[in-house]
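Hi, here's the filled form for the chain we discussed.

Project: internal
Contact: R.S.
Residues: 124
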Amino acid sequence: QVQLVESGGGLVQAGDSLRLSCSASGGTFSNNHMGWFRQAPGKEREFVALISRGGASTWYADSVKGRFTVSRDNAKNTVYLQMNSLKPEDTGVYYCARRRPYGDYDRPRGYDYWGQGTQVTVSS
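And the returned structure, exactly as it came back:
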């Protein structure tokens, strides 16, 4: 029932910025925390960021803390990931996902619906 669609990815140089968007439909958006994961070629999907239902609380992976900012606009059913000071190691497919009411927040099994992903490539 829930559909998530990411957008905003692209090819940028190290040090540049991108803003990703995730548009949600088919559910009550404000009822769930929303997270971002990424997956580099040949690597496991890894947690990036999480935002609470009202947007008051956020959580970040150590690798992106201080550079990335997650936010949401519940009136627009959209969650964002602002990525600054991008590094080549940030390259990967970025996914948004809806948080389950249980399970580890930093593991994929803690989320029940996923978008198709958007590619982010950072060149050196």
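Let me know if anything looks off before we file it.
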